[in-house]
Input
Amino acid sequence: MMAALVFDAPAWLALLALPLALAWWTARNAAAPDEPTGALELWRAAQLEAPHSARGARRWPLRTLFALAALAAACLALAAPVWRPSAGPVVWRVIVDARAALGLPAPSEAAGSVAGEARAQRALALAGNALARVLEPGDRCEWWLVSGEHVLATSSTLPADWPPLHEQLCGHAAPAWERYDELGTLWVTDCGAEPAPRHAGLAASGASATPGVVARWPGRALAWNGRETVELAEPAPLVALALDARRGPLGRALAAWCSARGATLCDPAACGDAAALRIEFAALSAGERSAGRSAGWSLAGRSGVLAPSARPHSVLLAEEGPRARPLLRVARGRVECALEPDAELGGDGAAFAVSCADAFDRALLPIAPVVALEERQRSEAPREIAPRRPADPSAPPRSLAGWCAAAAALFALGAATLRR
Amino acid sequence: MSARVEPTSAAVVLGPAYAERVRRLAAAFAAQRARASSASGAARRAGGGDELVGHRPLRAGEDARDLDVELYARLERPFVRERRAEAGERWAVALDTSRSMDVGAPSKLQLAAEVAGALAACGLRSGARVELCAVGRAGGVEFEVCSRALDWARCARWLELRSASAIGSSGVLLAQPRLLAARRVFVLGDLFDLEPAQVLTLARRGRAVAALAVLAPTELAPPRSGAVVWRDLETQARAPVALSPEVVERYRAALEARLDAWAGAFARRGQSFAVAASPSPFEDAVHGVLRA
Output
């Protein structure tokens, strides 16, 4: 079991400069002067019968040594040293920032920088180095990709490709850092996290001003060129929906919304990763029917089960009844439907179209990786704080202040009683 | 106290008063020598001893017994007889310029150079040809030869160009053939790198040898307490020593034994040996080596 010596009042350690300065001053004065002579051999002969004289020329007075030791021990006692036995094998938790800004290029002027390297890669490399310094046999690491309070993905090995491109499309927020501010944790980001970590370590790649798109609408974008923001024309966004699903109520509402927003409908196989929004239907379960009701409209039909999602999402339509499982789920870049494409629409069709248009709007923006203006303008140096090993909660810490004070008293007594 | 950084070897400085002090010393030496010659006047009249080489005006401070009363009666101006002690006599002065001569303030080399200059003046005043030799900065032995009184200023300039920069120079100097050709040989240095027998090999029939051991105050009377790191300037070897009365007494006993050995060896061969502290007046040191 490892252990750590920590100080509860480390500010007092600054007083150690006093005995150090005294030691320097004493050494400076205790050093024997260098005197030239032509009679060196005579002195050597005179020393042969008194060899202690050579040692005496180099030795500090014992009294001085005791006084310095007393001062140093007193300073240590004031700093309240505590011996904390640490836990055995540690699971180090690495929190990786999922913001799109991590995909921007890392500052090129930093030491050891690789041209074209993303901030995420730089920060992950720093984290890997920091962990290599603290990892001990038996320890392991867990890497968490976090947006706000959501853990988007986990890995047990260093995820060199984090955050992945499809996650950047989703406009994630910075992790809720304060939730992860504890010993045995390392934050991975580009700029110094707010608030600053008190217990966790930090691996920040640094940032430099990076011109680029700061806002985007279908067909238009707003970009910062390093001095000002300018408006740019953009190609129409692609919305992926299977051809056989376009006859149903959701497909028809989507077609109307696309023509109003200037988006283009495409087949999922043809769009590939270029689709800014995907409408997906769950695999239907045999014999299962579900119905859901929202404000003024309802949908009913055969249904399947939506896979659990770790991404931030909202539920547009839930099943009626105690199960209340989601039937229409909206997340950034994706709308998932548990009902069949040809589900029956009941109630006010116009209200259904308005609800769908609102959901599509929320799911579409941003339609491509967009980094906020203040994040593009930010410039910071790389920063590292070594992660610290957590203490063993079962072993109580032991204060060493008393021992240091006792040592200081004994040294002081020795200095007072010694003649030289 | 911090370790002192040793400066580069100090230059020899023969101040403006030095020439006057040397002149007085040489005059006194010449007068003393003349008195000694007068004491053996019968021998001189028989043809041996000092040779009369002429007359010159009496200078202030000179012994009035050398006044030529006959000339004074005729010319009513004071003239003294000038004699050459021994025609063609050669003096050689070997000056130790090893790095250890840089010790002390003023340095040992400073006093040795002052003594060398004074000896040159005394020799010239006696009509001798004086050859100064020392190891130069380049490592070779350098000479300065003076045969007339007017040459003394050149000797002084040559001495001012000496510096304590040679390594182990004394042994090289003693091997110089010019020393073997001299009637009087003076060895000036701290003599720590020599033994009496090495110098006394020069003492043959008809050749007098005198040695002057110039020591720094810290070598003659070191402090009795504290700590010091003694350093040899030639080898840069160091010896840290905690000074105590016991250790210092042991050192002084060893130093006295060494100097006694030198004095005893020279006395047994009828030669002259003297010890001088580097801050002492050069006149005392010159009297010490010329007394033989």
